[in-house]
Design goal:
The structure holds two protein chains of two kinds.
Chain A lengths: L17 E2 L10 E2 L1 E5 L6 H11 L6 E4 L10 H11 L7 H8 L11 H17 L2 H7 L6 E5 L2 E5 L18 H10 L4 E4 L6 E4 L5 E4 L14 E8 L4 E8 L3 H10 L4 H9 L11 H6 L3
Parallel strand pairs in A: 2-5, 3-4, 6-7, 7-9
Antiparallel strand pairs in A: 1-5, 3-10, 5-6, 8-9, 10-11
Chain B lengths: L13 H9 L22 E2 L6 E5 L28 H13 L4 E5 L9 H9 L3 E6 L6 H12 L5 E6 L5 H8 L3 H14 L5 E5 L7 H13 L7 E5 L6 H5 L11 H4 L12 E5 L2 E3 L11 E3 L2 H5 L3 E2 L4 H8 L15
Parallel strand pairs in B: 2-3, 2-8, 3-4, 4-5, 5-6, 6-7
Antiparallel strand pairs in B: 1-11, 8-9, 9-10
Helix pairs in contact in B: 2-3, 3-4, 4-6
The chains are: A alpha/beta, B alpha/beta.
């Protein structure tokens, strides 16, 4: 078995953004260029590729929005890579479930098929995540505040009000997001959880950015995975979504060796989601194959 | 698997109830215990955490069908609640922006009996996603195409939720009426041809262990009309309205007591995040259209300011099954 730890360049060991409530807004760290990812889902090969790629991006911070485990093989490899890198991590619902020893991932599926696969994924991940890593997950913050240029940023997993809330592009109204930004006193809302990257510009120049998932393709028939690069602009934060190629075939083979369901492996190889489809709104689901 | 430490939160469904019955919890200091076999006044109440869902009783209690399980006894001649006008809906939509509403739902009765429904959906889709709960019998090709046009013009999703209560004409028509199976299947065919992936909802009228088999039969049936990846939503029976005479009503012991709410996450209940507007005022949820206790005000402003009382026996079904009326779990139950 290869050593899952990757030596990290010092520039990535940034002083992390402070958890919400830790300090006043004026005292939060300020960055110019930040790489943000979430939904790693035990895809340690994609994470390794990302860590290498961001070294060449001249970022002054890297941030993970949670859900280190799910779907993929050897969950401890991902956790070890992340912990070794020193990258700040926001707690996702998967991390929260593992930390608290809950029965399931808190995605709340009611469809029997989705539930079946969600339990296989969760039970495997729970069994293969060390107690020490689970205890560490319990220490992760729910939200982080920082600035990019002069813009206030609030980072979370699902939404600022609920860690496991899905914010989909076609079911999240503009007025709803603008209400969240006002209520939570921020310009930019930064989340993941749903697994599909998308963004919206809000009144007053703020925005919402869903950074997508690093561990699972975006249900578009391509095996690449996604993260976001955010940069201070003149009066707003500019962002772009970046597709990441990695050794997805290697991951698929590891999943086969671990006896994970063929449905999970198919997603990695083809880019089409095969499970956890119940929560997708009609439009997002129409763009997929299943 | 490593043993799971004690679960701190009761989760949805019968498991929560079973846990309460099997292992009564110690009362919190200052909380008086009451015998749970007796209904108490006042009933437990649920605060509105956020108005995530706004429901419209857009065709009142008027329906072209007379289903034998309808929990509010909708029918062609049931005029106890009348249609909502496009103008009335528009006014609520405008109000909803400031209330942070996330999703809009349209029910009845049969929403496509409302002559203004397409205009209503057009207005709604300018603001957010819309879901129509329909019996699928009033969807000729022209309507399916019009709906596809509305959906295509909006950045938001238009969901069609079609009720089909059996995998054969005899199974469905025994509940929904003669000839409805074929008419509904025609509607599904039109929607699929127009590019929709309708959610097929079905009341569970069979013993629970047979569910997997029935779901398989549904998939086969729907594939026959070109719908090869259906989303199926199985709903528990609500033992009220017509269903009360078809099977049974709620037992005296089937209600939500204060004891049952102890340690229960009320975010699982629809009334913690939704309200239903009708032509006659605002109710706590779409199931309790006729309940005087669930009437929370004449205006939406009044109704969002009031807690919802769990005074009706149907609240017991919601307690056991979670917010079954929503399209999908929206991440409730974990407020942190």
């Amino acid at each position: 078995m290869s050593d899952p730890r990757l030596p990290m360049a010092d520039p990535l060991r940034v002083p992390g953004p402070v958890p919400e409530g830790g300090q006043g807004h004026s005292e939060v760290p300020v960055f110019e260029r930040v790489a943000v990812f979430g939904g790693v889902y035990s895809n340690h090969l994609a994470l390794r590729a990302l860590l290498t790629e961001v070294e060449g991006l001249a970022v002054d911070a890297v941030l993970c929005l949670g859900d280190l485990g799910a779907f993929g093989p050897h969950p401890d490899r991902t956790v070890e890579l992340i912990r070794e890198s020193g990258i700040p991590v926001v707690r996702g619902n998967y991390d929260d479930s593992l930390a608290r020893g809950l029965e399931d991932c808190q995605c709340g599926y009611t469809d029997p098929r989705d539930n079946h696969f969600a339990h296989i994924s969760y039970d495997y991940t729970f069994r293969r995540t060390s107690p020490e890593h689970r205890a560490w997950m319990a220490t992760l913050p729910d939200r982080l505040r920082f600035r990019i240029g002069d813009q206030r940023v609030l980072a979370f997993h699902g939404s600022p009000r609920r860690m496991n809330e899905f914010l989909w592009e076609t079911t999240t109204p503009q007025h709803f997001l603008e209400g969240l930004a006002v209520e939570h006193q921020t310009d930019l809302l930064l989340g993941t959880h749903s697994g599909l990257h998308w963004s919206r510009t809000l009144a007053g120049g703020g925005g919402y950015v869903n950074v997508g998932a690093l561990g699972r393709p975006a249900n578009d028939g391509r095996p690449v995975v996604w993260y976001a690069l955010l940069e201070a602009g003149e009066s707003a934060v500019n962002h772009r979504f970046i597709p990441l190629s990695y050794d997805h075939e290697g991951l698929a083979r590891e999943m086969e060796e671990e006896g994970l369901p063929g449905e999970f492996i198919e997603t990695i190889r083809t880019g089409w989601w095969t499970t956890c489809l119940e929560v997708l709104p009609g439009k997002e689901r129409s763009r997929g194959k299943w | 698997m490593a043993p799971r430490p004690d679960l701190p939160v009761l989760t949805r469904g019968g498991a929560a109830l079973a846990a309460l019955r099997a292992a009564p919890r110690s009362p919190a200091a200052g909380v008086e215990r009451r015998p749970s076999a007796f209904r108490v006044e006042p009933p437990p109440t649920v605060p509105l955490l956020a108005l995530d869902e706004l429901w419209f009783q857009v065709s009142g209690t008027v329906c072209n069908l007379r289903c034998r399980h309808c929990f509010i006894s909708c029918a062609p001649d049931n005029h106890s609640h009348w249609f909502m006008s496009r103008e009335a809906v528009r006014s609520y939509l405008e109000e909803s922006r400031g209330l942070g509403v996330k999703e809009y739902y349209f029910t009845g009765g049969e929403p496509f009996m409302n002559r203004e429904i397409e205009g209503i959906l057009q207005d709604t889709l300018e603001l957010g996603s819309a879901t129509v709960l329909t019996n699928g019998t009033l969807i000729p090709p022209r309507r399916a195409e019009a709906l596809a046009g509305l959906a295509g013009a909006s950045p938001y999703s238009l969901e069609l939720r079609v009720s089909l209560d059996g995998v054969t004409a005899s199974m469905n028509d025994a509940i929904r009426g003669e000839g409805t199976f074929n008419r509904c299947m025609d509607g599904v065919r039109q929607l699929v041809a127009a590019g929709f992936l309708p959610i097929i909802s079905c009341m569970r009228s069979w013993p629970e262990p047979e569910t997997e088999e029935v779901l398989g039969a549904f998939r086969e049936l729907l594939a026959g009309v070109g719908y090869t990846r259906p989303r199926l939503k199985i709903l528990p029976p609500l033992l009220m309205g017509e269903e009360e005479s078809r099977t049974r009503g709620y037992e005296d012991t089937e209600f939500v007591s204060h004891d049952m709410m102890y340690g229960f996450d009320s975010g699982q209940l629809l009334c913690s995040r939704a309200r239903l507007v009708t032509a006659r005022g605002v109710q706590a949820c779409p199931i309790l259209l006729e309940s005087p206790a669930a009437r929370l005000g004449d205006t939406l402003g009044e109704a969002v300011g009031r807690d919802a009382p769990l005074a009706d026996a149907a609240c017991f079904t919601c307690y056991q099954n979670g917010a079954i009326c929503s399209n999908a779990p929206s991440g409730s139950g974990l407020d942190r």
